[in-house]
Amino acid sequence: MSSAPKIKVKLFADGADLTGIKEMASNPAIKGFTTNPTLMRKAGVTDYKGFASQVLQIVGGRPISFEVFADEFGEMERQAHEIASWGKNIYVKIPVTNTKSEFCGPLVQRLSRAGVQLNVTALMTVDQVRRVTDRLAPDTPAIISVFAGRIADTGRDPIPIMAEAVKVMKARPRAELIWASPRELLNIVQAGQVGCHIITATNDILKKLSLVGKDLDAYSLETVEMFHKDAKAAGYSISTRAAA
Question: What is the domain extent for residue 199?
């Protein structure tokens, strides 16, 4: 990751595989970590608190986000306080709505005023960013995760939305904006250009950071060499048809 100093945004690793988390934790360029129940399920996690305990030991004092999984706000609140008690570097992930499309704002307000560090997640519109920002306590650190990658999946350009979100969140200087669900390395550059504080990415994307600023002629030649090497290794040949 020799190109990391060129990156204008904090890099957070996103995942639930302990081996991958350990690999990213060994790199000082990684400033924090995120996960979610979907990633945890894919990684085969069955003991939520046990998994969190292991992750906390791996990441040291760097920020780490763990998500509530209830759908009723009362139970979300209970889970949020429990998760927050596991470590001072924890940000509790609260979805912007529940599955009934009910806005989480009142819950965010109560938790933030109580000093719980939140990562409000799954946002995709500027209006959502504005409504969540309004509910955050000015003195409590917080994160707002806008899923720019999923916005792009719908055929929309996420950059204007992210740039406007940066402006909206200036009302809460202790809150940081995450460019969530990036699809390619270019998104890391874009996140920095619009003023995002953080981008959270999977290990596969983060491992490509050494390519930032790479000479394109050299990269072209490496690609040609790869095709040539693989063709030879496969033993491909094209016979010439004999003349009639």
Answer: 4-211
